[in-house]
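Q: Here's a chain of 191 amino acids. Please give me its 3D structure as tokens.
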Amino acid sequence: MIKTYAMMIEELSRYSAPANKLSRMTKEGSCIQIVKGLYETDRSTPGYLLAGSIYGPSYLSFDFVLSRYGLIPEAVYIFTSATFEKKKSKNYTTPFGTFTYRDVPSSVYPCEVRIQSEGDYIYQIATAEKALCDKLYTLSPVKNKKELASLLFDDLRIDEIEFSKLDKQCLLRLCELYHCTNMKMLAKLVR
């Protein structure tokens, strides 16, 4: 279970020196410090369940979600998340994996994000359509539909069958919100 420093100190308040007890617990491995002020009590917790707690507000997106939905063939071991109005990317290397965070426009941030629960954990994850748009938003602009198709299917290795299963209306709605060249080209390609 994920806990803050304050929660841990409260739980350990029966000890004369709760902070020292917490320090000993982390050294012996009965709780794991994820980042400063944040702890996990179960070493086997999958990293994606922790991504939103490490830095937020954020939701899982980009390559991690494209892989999870089978749009790209590669296994992705970095937990990639989207944020808004943070002005810079963030990276954290923890005992649970590597976490990266990148901005997307605040106007599209809440769109097509699902809240999932797994055991005692709740996390946010983009739909496949949103993850694709987030990814394209972060890449250099293409000049035309042909370049976009090459970027999608050759460079990013998007599975064409899985791409054809995406909700086209959803993609078109999202494309209008990003206000960037790659989204304009994606809308043309989808139509």
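Q: Can you summarize the key feature?
A: DSSP finds nine helices and nine strands in the chain.
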